[in-house]
Amino acid sequence: MYNSRVLAAAVSAALFSAGALAEEPEHSHDSLGVIIVSAQRVEQELQKVPVAVSVFTGEFMQTRQVVDFENLVVYTPGLNVTTATRTLSQPVMRGASSDDDAPGVDLAVGLFVDDVFLGRNIDFAFDMFDIERVEVLHGPQGTLFGRNVTGGLINVQTRNPTNDFGGRGEITFGSENRLDFRGVLNVPIVDERLAVRMSVSSRNADGAIPNRSGPDLLQDDQDSFRGKLLFTPSDSFTLLLTGHYLRDRSIGVPRDIIAFGENLLPAIAAMVDLDPRVADVDAAGGYDRSVWGISARLDWEFGPHQLTSITAWHENHSDLLDIDVDATPALILGGPGTNDAEQFSQEIRHSYTSEDGRLNWIGGLYYLDVDFARTEFVNQIPFPGSFLNIIGLPPIGGSFTPPGFFDQRIETTSYSVFGQVTYALQEKLRLTVGGRYTVDDKEGFTADSGVIQQFNVDVAGDWNAFTPRFAVDYDLSEDVLLYASATRGFKSGGFSSTTTRAEALEGFEPEFVWSYELGLKSRFLDDRLQANIAAFRADYKDLQFRSGTVGTSSFVGNAGEASITGIESEFQFVATDGLYLFLNYAYQDGEYDQLIIGNTDYSGNSLALTPEHSLSTGLSWLVPLGDLGDLIFRGDYQYKSATFLNPEQIPGAVQKIDGLINASISLEFLDGRARLSVFGKNLTDETFITRANRLSVFLGDVDFSQAPPFAHVMTGSFNDPRRWGVSLSYQF
Fold first, then answer.
1. What CA–CA distance (Å, rounded) separates 59 from 23?
2. pTM (predicted TM-score)
3. Cα distance between residue 185 and residue 194, in whole Å
4. By C-alpha distance, which of 594, 571, 566, 592 is closest to 581?
5. How confident is the model at residue 43 (pLDDT cuts 50, 70, 90)?
6. Are 716 and 99 within 8 A, CB to CB?
7. CATH class name, domain 4-731
8. What's phi and psi for 169, nearest 5 deg?
9. What is the β-pairing status of strands 109-113 and 152-158?
10. In the β-sheet with 131-138, what is the strand arrangement from edge to edge?
11. Biggest alpha carbon distance in the chain?
12. pLDDT tens digits, 651-679
């Protein structure tokens, strides 16, 4: 199954890796603690779960200033999350990705927050504070999690109320006049019966990217709140009510010329600055986002049985203010957009464990209804001398006509029934069999005002699939687990929004994957060394991809076949009392086995946003200072080999991370209740591309003696620049 390069990578990882990412140990740094996860919808020890899982505790994230999903990429092998805007996040795992934000398109990597599925690109941008843990599950999760995903999922668990009075406050100052505040208060109202927890977060900063033609970009103005009420009328019954709210009025969406600046029209070249850390856009862009939701979770235990009901309502109203797609001070291409999504979900689960512990069962029913509307307005003014201007394309929007628009509204309804049973064939040998049957229905409309082709059509489709999972795991010893699994994943078909009439009506088919995984979880040296390795192969059928990134046109289609093999290794090591090390490495070899776009055969191209090599390493070193407290040094490093951002492998649309470095120095005092930290992110100001659009017909020099007659030019986004800050926190 695995070629020689994969085997070589596995041997290399086993010989040279020495870190991981489950949890940084406590201040004693003498051993690794027990990590509890809910990767199989019940709480289990991480080292006993036959699934590849990366886990990050709230403490780990707080000490490293991890406030969003892009920060998690540094620590997670095989995961890539790029964000063009806060309404378009692109998670990628094991070759599966979804970078189209249309309502008719599903994600390949799912997001769950407190067991509630939030499955749209617009849902990934929220403030991560007061977190219990984040679990990243690698590969398709086709059995236990609602809304099947083909690449993997991110499972966020926020902190629940407890019966102890306490709280925490944190204030952060930093570059660009950053001033952030976070606060948590936990109050027991009735001892052991009723408790409430309230968390607030406020992020504020000036722009990190100076803009020569308007407001600076990457300004922060975001406030969040979460409240939880835990009611425990008896030892066997609990009710957890959760409400959350986010308000975001941040300004500035970075856009720049990212490749082939020498090919610009002379008049454009004379007016732009090609420095990736300096913008020159006529429309700064920004956000007007309002996100809120409520949920109710009921857990009832009776004997060896447990019933769980999760009911949730979620709304996301996210307007994208006028942005400049062409990345120049001239009005050429851009416009605002609106996103409105309302979601209701209901899940009922039953779990059972036999008295002798040999049989474990979990199963249930799941329902989801999402009504998602998105409008993208377009101002398209051909620049004098550009290809579009020469061929006589009329302007749209600006001071000439009303803006054009792409419009789509899709209601997605999903039903599923699922179950999984694990049986101990022997004391050390267990067999797991599970499956989910899913029915998805989508209906609505897709419209184009005439930016490409004027149409307004009704669309509808339904798809169903059975996704089984088979796994066997064996205890080689008390501290070493070996497992193997085969899992089928499914992502339903749908409808792209920015297409021609024919493409809108045709839509695209479901994506399927069979994933095979062989894994090892182990601990050695009295719980000081942890080594988790997973080798995998995934075979995709009708892999969904985004293409046609020329100007304003794009569509989602299906590749015939695609495959990927790889190794994901996670290690951590308590080297001495006070010194903690980790090193994670992922090797991926993926390609489109069959891919034809238009009349061009792209078969054999590498999978988009899937680097062959990904490496992250870091340390934490604690130095006791006696009565003064503890001084802690932390540092992280990330490397990713070059990978194309699109399946066509357009020159210039390449991402490569040569070395991203984060570091901090913290003083913990008052018996660990207070912490003063100085931190820096991207200390070397590493610059790499996160998003690309080919705008050759808008910006490229024209020479009709060449084919094509326009020179290639790429615009897009870069990662965040270097930042620093000082934070002070106190816990009581």
1. 8
2. 0.91
3. 14
4. 571
5. confident
6. no
7. mainly beta
8. -130, 145
9. parallel
10. 53-57, 131-138, 152-158, 109-113, 116-117
11. 82
12. 889 999 999 999 999 999 999 999 999 99
